[in-house]
Amino acid sequence: MPRADADDADDTQGPQQEFRRDRQGPLSDIASAVDERSTDAGESAFDELFEQEQVAEIDSDQLWDRLENDQPPDSFLEADREVREIDKHSYCHQCPHFAEPPELACGHDGTDILDVPSLETFRVADCPVVLENEDLEREY
User: Fold this and answer.
1) Are 125 and 114 in contact (CB under 8 A)?
2) Nearest alpha carbon to residue 119 among 99, 95, 93, 98
3) Pairing between strand 121-125 and 83-87?
4) Strands (E), 19-90
5) I want to staple 97 with a disulfide (CB 3.0 to 4.6 A). Which of 11, 71, 107, 129 is the partner?
6) Residue 113 near residue 105 (C-beta atoms within 8 A)
7) Under a CB-based contact definition with an 8 Å cutoff, are residues 97 and 88 in contact?
8) Which among 80, 84, 81 is positioned nearest to 130, based on CA atoms?
9) How many Å apart are CA 5 and CA 1, to the nearest integer?
């Protein structure tokens, strides 16, 4: 008989009511507010909490080929880029485009710091300063 009462309660309160709980303990007021918000407005209630970002299209066949050939998974992002491992003190720390700490980024359009392979080096992509220095070294 108790089961029939529970079914009757669900029918009279609707499907949204099953998510509402009597919360007790620390942060119970916040948990209840989240429960209420999610049942009142559905999934769209939390959409404002997140930002959508555009991401590059990834060719899944190319990715699998690179993984099968023991290439690092992020190498597909570097396919058409000039990637170099450089001394961070000689280049980035001297550059006006280098972001202020604690951020680790390059502000030059099209240039990215991809990795920190060691304490002394960065792996960068499409850095015009690095590429220009390479060209100058080849001329001598």
Assistant:
1) yes
2) 93
3) antiparallel
4) 83-87
5) 107
6) yes
7) no
8) 84
9) 7
Residues whose CB is less than 8 angstroms from the CB of residue 80 and which lie 6 or more positions away in sequence, other chains included: none
Q: Cα separation of 105 and 96, whole Å?
A: 12
Q: Can you tell me the distance from the alpha carbon of 16 to that of 126, in angstroms, rounded to the nearest whole number?
A: 52
Q: Are 19 and 35 in contact (CB under 8 A)?
A: yes
**Residue type present at position 57:** E
Asked, as a colleague might, if the bond just before 2 is cis with ω within 30 of 0, I would say: no
User: pLDDT by residue for the chain (140 residues), tens digit each?
Assistant: 444 444 444 444 444 444 445 667 788 888 877 777 666 555 565 677 778 777 667 777 776 776 777 665 555 555 678 889 999 999 999 999 999 988 999 999 989 998 899 999 999 999 999 999 888 887 76
Residue with token string 């190319």:
62
Q: For the chain, which residues make up each domain, given as ranges?
A: 2-49, 82-139
* In the block, residue with structure tokens 């960068």: 124
Residue corresponding to tokens 């690092």: 72
Residue 130 in contact with residue 91, Cβ under 8 Å?
A: yes
